[in-house]
TrEMBL record:
Domain CCR4-Not complex component Not N-terminal: 4-232
UniProt name for this protein: CCR4-NOT transcription complex subunit 3
Protein localization: Cytoplasm, P-body; Nucleus
Listed Pfam families: NOT2_3_5_C, Not3
One of the record's GO cellular component terms: CCR4-NOT core complex
Length: 551
């Protein structure tokens, strides 16, 4: 009979813990869904996990009692077990949402439709990325160890073991960085589909062996690891090239930059090109027909040349046709840039660069309206003529004039200027204190015109109710009233928990007291639900105790 009463008492205590645990689980569940940022969600999720583990232990105990023949009425036990299992299902939902929150539903749906080749490529790419990250982490560890050993060797010179260790770590760092460079090259080639996946899989085992065992004393490195991949012969797709179909200026200009031809010494005054020079330009094979617009991409190299010269461009010589020519006849514009370079003996070596730009006559007439000549007689043969066009130095690297902004660019510029006039102020982040009278207004005479006497003393706050003190503490942050309310609460044996940001008070003497914590039953004030609650078996760690002496 006594055994049955003892068993029934254990069952009652277990069911009571289940009820309290489910209630606590529900509270944390609500806080999790009302959390404002990711840090709070992670904290509440960890609390939820702790609570569900407690409930699982109670469920195991209940299952033992349900399977026992000593208990006849098992209805209440079965109901509590189902209640715990319901909370476990809810926790699984939270856990699933946390793991898949970074991916959209569309992406999860499409994951099954990826073809095997693409999936294999993604797997190899992920492996390469993870391997590079691991090697970078090991390099960071080696460098930190080298720094610490260097500091120790400075203090204590002549330590040969540490010097040998530093040299060994430097060798590891050098080898790791070599492998990181090669793996990054392989990853780029994989992204550009210039390296098959099977070739990368062949080196996977060797790379993993190096990553895991490179620090072993009997490690033998495979020096021919990347030889089969031909990484030295990088394909052209990995090198940034200019788009095809550019104007003739690109070829001429880059040829002038890359060739090491000797420069000719000339005077600094403008010299018009001779007829032989002009004839040579005209005798070049004609390029393919250009579009009706003039691409400014060809002039992007001119600022580079100007930045390496000592003098700005002096003039542009424009040999052009007459206006009466049909639009299909090409026009050649020769830009003469006088580029100077430092020379010995205080002299200047200059070189003359003629850049030929090929574009249609309609564009030439728009850009250089002053260069056209009046039409000659119909019977006269058409002779090319030269006219000078001066470029003001203020145009800088835009000899064709400023490029007009689009509507979107003008709108963005206007919005940026408007934003500068409404810059945020640090006071914008402060909480609005509705209970502090910023702008006093006149009141009726029978109202209090001044605060009550001695209202700024601890004795006055000790006469207030506990709920009023909590209200002042949580809603008058950063004021003297909050300080006095905290002081009054401490005099009433309330203690502030810095982790949970709540006030706790002993309900009874603690069952366990150590130097680091005390455990027992506490009453705490829940500021979210605005009420006092009781917590049994709570461990109050002293490191979270706000124990400053409020003077």
């Amino acid at each position: 009979m006594a055994d049955k009463r003892k068993l029934q008492g254990e069952i009652d205590r277990c069911l009571k813990k289940v009820t309290e645990g489910v209630e606590q689980f529900e509270d944390i569940w609500q806080k999790l869904h009302n959390a404002a940022n990711a840090n709070q969600k992670e904290k509440y999720e960890a609390d939820l996990k702790k609570e569900i583990k407690k409930l699982q232990r109670l469920r195991d105990q209940i299952k033992t009692w349900v399977a026992s023949n000593e208990i006849k009425d098992k209805r209440q036990l079965v109901e509590n077990r189902k209640l715990i299992e319901t909370q476990m299902e809810r926790f699984k939902i939270v856990e699933r949402e946390t793991k898949t929150k970074a991916y959209s539903k569309e992406g999860l749906g499409l994951a099954q439709k990826v073809d095997p080749a693409q999936r294999e490529k993604e797997e190899v790419g992920n492996w390469l990325t993870n391997t590079i990250d691991t090697l970078n982490m090991q390099v960071d560890q080696f460098e930190s160890e080298v720094e610490s050993l260097s500091v120790q060797t400075r203090k204590k010179k002549g330590d040969k073991e540490k010097q040998d260790r530093i040299e060994e770590l430097k060798r590891f760092i050098e080898k790791h960085r070599y492998h990181i460079r090669m793996l990054e090259t392989i990853l780029r080639m994989l992204d550009n589909d210039t390296l098959p996946v099977d070739s990368i899989r062949k080196i996977k085992d060797d790379v993993e062996y190096y990553m895991d065992s490179s620090q072993d004393p009997d490690f033998e490195e495979n020096e021919f690891l990347y030889d089969d991949l031909d990484l030295e012969e990088l394909p052209g797709s990995l090198v940034a090239t200019s788009p095809p179909g550019q104007s003739l200026l690109d070829d001429d200009l880059f040829h002038q930059i890359s060739s090491g031809t000797p420069t000719s010494t000339t005077s600094s005054s403008p010299i018009p090109p001779s007829s032989a020079t002009y004839t040579t330009v005209r005798e070049r094979p004609p390029p393919p027909p250009p579009p009706r617009y003039f691409s400014l991409y060809s002039l992007h190299c001119i600022p580079y040349l100007l930045s390496h010269s000592l003098e700005p461009p002096t003039l542009i010589l424009v040999p052009c046709s007459t206006v009466c020519l049909p639009l299909s006849i090409p026009v050649y514009v020769t830009i003469k840039l006088l580029l100077g370079g430092g020379g010995g003996g205080g002299g200047f070596h200059t070189r003359l660069l003629f850049i030929t730009i090929y574009f249609s006559l309609s564009v030439a007439s728009d850009i250089f309206p002053s260069t056209t000549l009046p039409p000659g007689p119909p019977s006269a043969p058409q002779q090319p003529s030269l006219s000078e066009v001066s470029i003001p130095p203020s145009l800088g690297v835009c000899p064709l004039g400023p490029v007009p902004l689009s509507k979107d660019q003008l709108y963005q510029q206007a919005m940026q200027e408007s934003a500068w006039t409404h810059m945020p102020h640090p006071s914008d982040s402060e909480r609005i204190r509705q209970y502090l009278m910023r702008n006093p207004c006149p009141t009726l005479p029978f109202h209090h015109q001044v605060p009550p006497p001695h209202s700024d003393s601890v004795e006055f706050y000790q006469r207030l109710s506990t709920e009023t003190l909590f209200f002042i503490f949580y809603y008058l942050e950063g004021t003297k009233a909050q300080y006095l309310a905290a002081k009054a609460l401490k005099k009433q044996s309330w203690r502030f928990h810095t982790k949970y940001m709540m006030w706790f008070q002993r309900h009874e003497e603690p069952k366990t007291i150590t130097d680091e914590f005390e455990q027992g039953t506490y009453i705490y004030f829940d500021y979210e639900k605005w009420g006092q609650r009781k917590k049994e078996g709570f461990t109050f760690e002293y490191r979270y105790l706000e124990d400053r002496d409020l003077q």
